[in-house]
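Sorry to interrupt, but I need a hand with the structure work. Could you write out one complete protein record for me, on any chain you like? Just paste the record in under my message, thanks.

. . .
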Amino acid sequence: MSKAIVLSRVSSSHQDLTQQTDEILWEVHRDGYEDRDIIIIEDTESAINLSEEERRGLNKMKDHINRNSDIACVYLYELSRLSRRQLVLFSIRDFLVERKIQLICLKPYFRLLEVDGTMSQTGSLMFSLFSSLSESEMMLKKERMMRGRRRNRELGKSAGGKPPFGYDLNKEKRYIVNPSESTIIVRIFEDYTTRHKSIREIATDLKEEGHFAASSINTLCLRIRTILNNPIYTGEFPYPQILSKDLYSAAQQALALYNETRKGKGKAPFLLKGLTCDARTGYLLSTNGAIDTYFSKHHAGVSIRRTNIDPVVWEYAKMMYERYVMNRDRLLKQIKTSYEATAQKISVVERDMQTIQTKLERVEESYILGRISQAKAEHLRQQLYEDRARKERRKEELIDLYIRKESQRKSLLLDTIDENLLTHEDKFEIIRQVVEIITIEKPNPTYSVIKIYNRINSLVYVYEVHCWNHTWTLLRESTTRKDPHIPIKSNPTIRRTISA
């Protein structure tokens, strides 16, 4: 005896499969199939958003057909139970037609195949018509739902999904403050800004007190960072205010300082890296951020603290740059190009922020339509909130850079360099346009002799640096280079020389 498959599906857990399955079984029994010849496949999943490969029910049906050659028929309550996507529907139709397996739909009633196994013209027409109607119906339903969500958002009501931590919904679906959760939010902000606790310390305290029991420490740290970056708690529409804007701003400043510290961790601001060498041996000096020093890796080599040499060379380089290199018109053009590029970057960041907002709305939509679970939706929200916070910080950085470049432009109109407007990278670039090499001698531990060779003329500036009180004195300006052919031995295969 041939077998039949009963394919029954609902879109959400609050719908009942029983009535649908019972009506199909009545038709199957009427066609002469007994219970032992019937394979029932019941499932709860979306039919509009999942692809054919992602549908559990369809995969089970295909698996039964591929493993059992006795299956002759598949029964459905209505075509939309198979899928609401035409691409999936026609793929399944072709799969069944190739194997000469009949498809019977109850609402409206039609049979896909003739008795000889060929496709029925009436069945094909009905299949095409109702597959189109199924997809169109879901698209209209989706559009109405999104329109309703937008309307609710405009009215200050929930547009769907779980309320953010710190809020509940009242009967009118408006956000209200959750007393216990809002207390935790204020505490998180105060611990981070006033008590100067780290995010991990805050997470540990909350866990030990029994809060967020289901979250691991790492997950809770991410959640706390998301809360610290979320501006809705300052009273952004439609959410009631939980904390002051001053407290939120203090948290943002603390986060920015933490991120900047991490970004620069292990990177001491050495301005002269690759330019200093031991006058006696000719070897380039290395840098050590831990002790803030230029030093020779070779035995009995010279060493000098960064604070004893960088300021000397910077003042020299600034003087030479203003005197010989600085071209106001060229620099003004460069700065104009720079802040135009910065303005473009700001525009891109703002566009990225809008994209993130669109993704947040899609996550909410997917959750409402049952495409993703609550846990998945919450995870995606957290990720997107973090991405938005990073973009906001980047936008602030770019705005600061834009303002600084404009100030540099105004400064250049006076033919001077305002050091306060220069970044470390700006100083680094100026020094390399002026300085060729710097030699260092250390006659005794209390002072060093520094000779600066420039790229502009043949003058060599000789400074004496008093290492203990961090002061320096210009000893002389040599019109000829006293140290001809100093070998610069950064490694055995690279040798540079200073010509006489």
